[in-house]
Amino acid sequence: MKKTKRILLKTLKILAKILAGILVLLLLIILFIRSPWGQDIIKDKFISNLSGKTNTTIDVEKLFITFSGDISIEGLYLEDKQGDTLVYSKSLEADIPLWPIISGNGIGVDEVNWNGLTANIIRKDSIAGYNFQFLIDALAPSDTTSTAQDTTSAPMNLSLGNFNFSKFNITYKDDVTGIDSKILLDELELEMEETDMENMIFKVGDFRLGNTNFSYIQTKAFPESEDEESAPMPLISVASIEIKELSGNYQSVPDGMLAVLNIQNLNSEDALMDLADNTIDINSFLLVNSLVRLETEDTGSSEKETAATEQPADQTEPFQWPQWKVNVNELLLQDNEITYLVGGAIPKEGEFNPNAIAINDFTLNGSNIYLEGQSAGLSLDKLQFTEASGIDFNALNFDLEVTDRILKISNFDFAANNNVLEGTFSAEYESIDNLINNPEGAEMAADLSHFEIALGELFKFQPALKQNPYLVNLSNKKITGSLKIEGPVAYLQIPSTNINWGNNTNISASGSIQNPTDPDNMYFNFPKIRISSTKTDLGKLIEEDSLGISLPQDIQLNANLRGSTDNMTASARLNTSEGNINLDGSFLNRGQLAFDADLEVDSLHLGNILKNEQLGALSLTLTASGEGENINSLDANLQTNISSFQYNNYAIEDLKLSGEINDGQGTITSNYKDENLNAELAADVLLDSVSPVVDLNLEVIGANLTKLGITNREMRTAFRLRGIYEGTAEGFQVISSIKDGVVVYDNQTYILGEFGAAAYITQDSTAMAVDNKMLNLRLNSNTNPAGFVDAIIRHYRSYLSDDVDVPDTLMNPVELEVKGKIMPAPIMRDVFLTSLEELDTIDLNVQFNESERLLNAYVKVPYVNYSGIEVDSLQFNLDSEPGKFDFNLGFNSLAAGPLDIEETILDGNIENEKLYLDFKSIYDGEQLVHVQTETSKTNDTLRIHINPEEFIINRNQWNIPADNEARFAEKSIKFNNFRINKDHQEFAVTNELPNVEEEHIALNFENFKLATLLTYLNPTDTLATGRMNGEFVLQEPFGSTGILADLEVNEFNMLNVNMGTLSLNGESLGNQNYDFGLATSGGEVAMELAGNYKVQDTTAQLDMTLDLQEVQMSALAGFSMGAVSSGEGSFSGQIKINGTTANPDYNGELIFNEATFTMAMLDAPFTLPNETMTFDNEGLYFNNFRIEDLEDNALVLDGDILTEDLLNPSFDLSITANNFQVLNSTEEDNDLFYGTAVFDMDATLTGDLNLPKLDLDLTIGSQTDVTYVIPETELQMQQRDGVVVFVNREDPDAILTQTEEETAVVSGVNIDALINVSEDAIFSIIINPETGDEFQVQGEGELDMSISPNGRTSLTGRYEVSDGFYEMSLYNLVSRRFEIVDGSTVTWFGDPYNASLDLRARYNVETSASALMASQISGIGANEKSRYQQELPFLVYLNIDGELTQPRLSFGLDMPEDEQGAIGGQVYGRIQQLNEQEQELNKQVFSLLVLNRFYPDAGSAGTSGGIATIARDNLNQALSDQLNMFSDKLLGDTGLELDFGLDSYTDYQGNAPQQRTELDIAAQKRFLNDRLIVRVGSEVDIEGASSDPRDTNPLIGNVSLQYLLTEDGQFRLQGFRRNQYENVIDGQVIISGLALIFTQEFNKFSELWDALLMQQEEKAKAKEEEEPQVQNSQPEDNANENQDNKNN
């Protein structure tokens, strides 16, 4: 027992010792582990063991672990297999309770404080794995036997506390998945309140992140994820989030995406996101001063993705409300930046690019944002930002409420740039899905109370719209207004619409629209539309000048419109200040085409609108209707009545136009007739949408073009025009012709001849033809006009460059043929081109074949004289073929004013891709100018070189370097050694001046004579002379061009006016400012133009002064080219010039200092004593401006000439004169009029140039003695008037045959004049200078004359003749002078040409009365008869009565009162008897006038024949001249001449006397080099007939053969037979004979004999000289003959 006890006790002691040892061991172990020494041993052992296994460096500075779970590690360093840092941790403290882990209650991390972590995790391939794989392998157990795991245990609980991380630098690079990422974390604080991994619940107290940067680059596409079991959706709640200074980027190389994030400040409170319950609840969210940037590549996949995701319409899923619950109490985004770039696009100011969006200062304030169930809403308090393109989103705020039944937007306020929108919107519907799929069922209401639209902002989104000028102009002003819409979408009501633009433009409307979402079934009804505007507003929208219109001052449109796009009815009333237009109509295009329209135009002033003063007011009515399946089968009716229309103040009234179309075919007709226009129109129309046809026939039976306002000259016309037009899809064809064309000009008839024109143009064909006696043209080509123009250019360029396609590579080579002639015709010269004085036929020919590379052309203009510009023998020739291109241009002479260019030739050819030109001018057999050039082209540079050989200017050889050249590029010109010189003269062109840095062209002159260049323009008369020295520079010639100059012309003389020295200076002031100076001094003109200008693109801003220091009047005489014969004195002035070169502003004055000038035609000197005239852009201003004559009498101007319209200045002048002498010339000064003219005047001139108004009180002074010489051509016209009047007896009112009543002296003026003629004023008219016919009158009168704007002239008053004479030539035999009897009068009662005449003219003759008294004294004695042989004075009176246009002429005989009793009064008694016997009286008057004696009163038959009246014979002569003029125009240059003559007489050879008038017609032709002249002719009875039936006029009654014995025609031989009236005695006789005719011109008989004697002496002397040389004369004679032939 005891033993057992001892054993037990001993055992217990042993166990106690063992237990005590264990406890001591445990205590020692715990002390060892807890002690730094023990933990160091364990750490070193573990690290040594692990380092030994991995063969890497592993180090831990300090490791401390407590049983409570506290872990502290400092200085942890792990190295990877390559010796690089794998992990380095500066310090790590973690509170991880161990007991819960031991007890199996989960893992808890109460707190982690980790500072200074650096980790590099890298995987280069999938075989080696990550760079930490060696650690996993080292720590893996050696026993690899797998142990079954119990998967039924409950998941481990995870409890997380607070995490504080700082100074993290983690790199993760995985080459296998293509991930390269890095994070630099400065500070992270995370307070976890709850972590439930099983239910995915994460509740965070506070989360703070600061100063963190990350980078993530994905270089490979993510592999497709494998299907995994769905995990429960998390619930995340955060009480507070604060992120500051977070930046990073994400780049996905496969997706071409780069995202950059920079968050400066992000705060959020009470944020909950329950994805399992689809709930988001945020109390507040703040993002400030942050940046988000997203860049993507333009992969072009969007369309594919869109196509892949699109679903057919029938598969569209119904709308479902999101099953989310969202609530955000407050959202604040402030001053953030958002950038979105696609494909490397860059934002551009002024142009919005959706692929380049850069938003700055993005601010968004929102509240009460919610989504729950079937409702959503928000309050947007503020949204604003700016975008790089220029979008300035100023404000957007509204309240939104959306449910499944309603949508409301209230307090809507939008402002962006200059756009504003304010209003409310609401909609009611059955459901959102119904709203999307069937919006017509919704009820909506929109009230846009105010909107402002700036269309210019639209250009940022669509820059191409800037090309639309109307949108550009419209964008200059805002569009403002208001709009209300209400009702169902299927039937929207628009109660009011109000739109404003500009200052006065307004559009208002009200109505309704049905089915607006279905355009095919849309129906609209606007019963009230009102549009009003003004010229000021619309002028800013429409460019009036470019369109050539002028808008009315006020415009208002009232209209109503209803219907659909294919069936509508409208009514419109357009009222303007220029007239009104009313339109009512309907249009249907729904399976069938139909229309109906009524148009009324009331007093529409087209002239004001179209800026054409020729057009007046238009009033018309138009009714049109039609129907048909299409335009091809249309049945239509048209009725138009132009009730009134004015053209050039001519009224066209009741012009009707009607048309009837059946089944697409019909006729449109119009007939119009008034006193000045008679025309008929018929046009057959074939309507075809592809090939319409119009066949037009217009017959103008008569048109007075002058009255119609088409021409200023008296012109009438008639013609028949037919034109056919046929259009095709590829082109068109036009055929037109004019037949029976005639123009009556100045009562002369011109035949237009048949005129035909045709054109056929398609894409592959062109044919044109014109046929007329003036123009003949043919053009044919196998392409369109643009095609053959391009082909000719291509052909030309092919010789200069190899880059041009050669013809054999062309698919369709072009061919072209052109032939034409322009031929002279009287109608062209006298009617159409009145300034054309002479023209020879112009020939044109062009032949072009591109495939054969042939181009031949010529143009020949033998002679043309147009308005004094003469061109002689102008010709152009072109000849090109493969390898050859030659051309030449030349003329014999060109004269225009002071220019008189002699023979000029330009030859050219292209060879070896170079153009060679040879220019020469020849005068008087020698070369005046000769220049040869060589031109080549390399790329875009043109090179010109002048050949130094035979380089002649002004008849002399000049020098130029052999390497000279000028190179022209698009915006560059370069010169090399471009310098010419001779003797001491030099001219050079360069662009390398050392003192000019900018691009420039410089002209340098050294002692260069102006005449050197100007002699070519006129080799006989000097245009200008002088010597030039200096330089002239154009700076920036292809940009803002300025002038630099230092140039001087010494001894400058222009048009024989001494200009002294001309100097030109210019310099650059910088910033495109230039100084400029131009001056002349030391001559007859002293002036200076000085100032500066600023270059602005194509113009310049001017600031200059023109100082006219002294301009001598002698210079004015020189510049006038003879118009002013002399000048004395001078004038000066100063003119300020501002504005631009395109629109200069100027003002100044001219001061005249005893300035005297004499007009050559008047030969009367006028003096401007000390007068000043001011002027500016608005006009010229005269203040008592005096013009004095030779006797210091003045004509005074006072008032203005306004020049706002330079082409139509207006006047406001008063003109007074007292005894002013305006004419003081002799016949040598002016062969048209001369003498002395003096007048008094008091007048006012108003109106404008188009219609001046003159009120005039004129008194012609007593010193007046004026002679007017009627030119020969005018004489023929004057003598013709009233002789023969052609009358259309069937239609006396026919326009074409109307005789113009000549009452319009001048038109286009308004004159009211009171004219007083002084008694001593003398007026002479030389009717015919060759015969000496002259009319002179002296007397007094008072006349009242008025001329209306249409030319109608009224003259009333009486002129009483006190003295004068009429000197006339009778049959070119004798000249008689009639003295006008005092008391003769001419009285006007209105029409100046229908004056009442009461004139008596007296011819004094002294002759014997024996022949007169022969019958009375036949039976008396010789002594008594001798009494009658004495010469007695007799008076022959010419009495002119009746009207001016139809004067009645009669004669009378009388004797002076003191001689009436001579010879017992028997002679006077016989005179009184004669006055009662008209025929006998006329015979005796004729005898007295011709023979200065009485004709014997034999009483035999025929004694009175041929002396009807002198007046009648004169009229016959005038008509003969007119017929001869007409024949000259008719025959032209045919060589055949027609002569006409009228002869009137009284034939007494029958049983009774009868009046006879015969028309002599003769034809003449020259033969044998004009040496033989054959003339045949006959007489045609016009009035009366021969009493002898045998006495008939043969067809050829007169024959004459005339041969020129000498070449000059001085001696002629003539044989003739003619039938002529011989005299009053013999009557009609036939004369045959042979004559030798000698012709010699002389003024005095002495000259005749002197000429004859001189000729005889010269012949004798020549004979004496030739006799000794007779043996050697033959060669010389041959030479002379050759020379004569050459001259001929």
From TrEMBL:
The keyword Cell inner membrane does not apply. The keyword Transmembrane helix applies. Its main location: membrane. It is a single-pass membrane protein. Keywords: Membrane, Transmembrane, Transmembrane helix. Residues 1187-1642 form the Translocation and assembly module TamB C-terminal domain. InterPro entries: AsmA-related, TamB_C. It comes from the Bacteria. It is found in: Membrane. Residues 1658-1688 are annotated as: Disordered. This is Translocation/assembly module TamB domain-containing protein. It comes from Autumnicola musiva.
